[in-house]
Amino acid sequence: MSLEKIYSFIDAHASAFIGDLVKLVRQPSVSAKGEGIEDCATLVEDMMREIGLSTKILRGERGHPVVYGEIKSKKTAKTLLFYNHYDVQPPEPLEEWKYGPFSGEIADGKVYGRGAVDNKGNLVSRLKAVQAYMKTVGEVPVNVKFVVDGEEEIGSPNLEPIVKKYRQLFSADAAIWEFGGTDRHERPNLYLGLKGVLSVELRAKCALKDVHSANAPLIPNAAWRLVWALNTLKDENEKILIEGLYDNVLPPTSEEIECLKNIPSEEEALKKELGLKQFLKGLSGVEALKALLFQPTCTINGLQSGYTGRGSKTVLPREAMAKLDFRLVPNQKPDEIFEKLVKHLRARGFGDIEIIRYGSTEPVKTPISDPFVSLVAKTAEKVYGKKAVIYPLSAGSGPMHLFRNLLGYPVVSAGCGHPESNNHAPNENLKIESFIKGVKFVAALISDFAS
């Protein structure tokens, strides 16, 4: 089937497609706060129905709804599933945004707003590819399913029971994951897996109330207590000190190492963008990629205690809090790492530190040799005019393991982002050109998957 008619439709309706993306960006959907979630789920369902998908709102015993949509083909039983999410990160710090975080402002050839690329832009690009088929051909050449999560940004803590309950709905032959895009040289980047993640909060509580800092010789300081506990987790050489944490780490295969060697270096551009002279431990080249993709991490995401306003306040805080995440690699398990963290702190005299567990996901990957990987790479090269860059893993995390490990089909992550999209940061944006090219890529992939 020729794609020219479909491409022409996409170009002719680009402005309307962008308008729908702006509409979705303007709807807040901050899962961490529960802000706008139900309204956004309804909006996503409405967008699906408008282009001809049958839909369901899937709910578990708790958590935010999952929006499910599907459209069936009369020509084949093959099914391609798209995983996306409608929830977004909190927009703070608000003062650093050029435009309102939910304004959907169009400027400099970009759509600005929280979720513009992560993940509403990618979601809309896929919906519009289906719409292009329905308006030009009248049907899709393969069965297409959409699973749109409402909790990805908080670790999808309630997705697993929904996947297990509605297992038949989630069945497919292959899946395209939520994110991806091009690098600084417009080469399409494909990701074959994700690191796992374990998110926790540590809390130190000492006195019943804050007191004058003059009492420091007598009153325990929660901030110091927490700092001392944190200091036991990792040394100055970036080695995580929790006993047994590295036990199940699976090293990269020789095939994966060769894959890393084929990834073009963008180190200097990244260091310049971040104002860095070098990466940690002076890493570069393949060694830097090995560390990024195949080493577990322990990261302090935020610290809070006492007075943090302007000027000084001589106070001794009663409480201190730190948020951390552990990025995990094959074959680590979040439950095991959490148990080892608890045991570690208790063994070092910090049993009084409260440990609150948040979302977690397992590490996962699809083999480089899987035929679906080759198919997606060839389609990307055809659409973008440049050979796809394949990453055996992404340093990011998500519930991909529920689809790859539990349901058993290959998963590749590809999308329409770009290196300056500012995911999770102020001024998140999506280039309109990248968005339209992303719609065409999905349309071409549906065609190639069908044939």
Radius of gyration: 23 Å
Q: Strand order of the main beta sheet, please?
A: 1-2-6-3-7-19
β content, as a range?
Answer: 15-25%
Total count of helical runs of at least 4 residues: 13
What is the approximate shape? globular
Q: CATH homologous superfamily name of the largest domain?
A: Zn peptidases
Helix content: 25-40%
Which assembly state applies to the chains in this document?
A: single chain
CATH topology of the largest domain: Aminopeptidase
Identify the CATH class of the largest domain: Alpha Beta
Distance between the termini: 9 Å
If you average the pLDDT, what whole number results? 96
Q: What is the count of β-strands?
A: 20
Give the number of domains.
Answer: 2
Low-confidence stretches: none
- Helix/strand structural class: alpha/beta
**CATH architecture descriptor of the largest domain:** 3-Layer(aba) Sandwich
Largest sheet descriptor: 6 strands, mixed
Q: Which SSEs are present, and which pair or pack?
A:
Elements: H1 4-12, H2 14-25, H3 37-50, E1 54-58, E2 66-71, E3 79-85, E4 106-107, E5 110-112, H4 120-136, E6 143-149, H5 159-165, E7 174-177, E8 181-182, E9 188-191, E10 193-205, E11 211-212, H6 222-231, H7 254-261, H8 267-274, H9 285-294, E12 297-305, E13 315-316, E14 319-328, H10 334-347, E15 354-361, E16 364-365, H11 371-384, E17 389-391, E18 394-397, H12 401-406, E19 411-413, E20 429-431, H13 432-450
Parallel strand pairs: 3-6, 3-7, 7-19, 9-17, 10-18
Antiparallel strand pairs: 1-2, 2-6, 4-5, 5-20, 8-9, 10-14, 10-15, 10-16, 11-13, 12-14
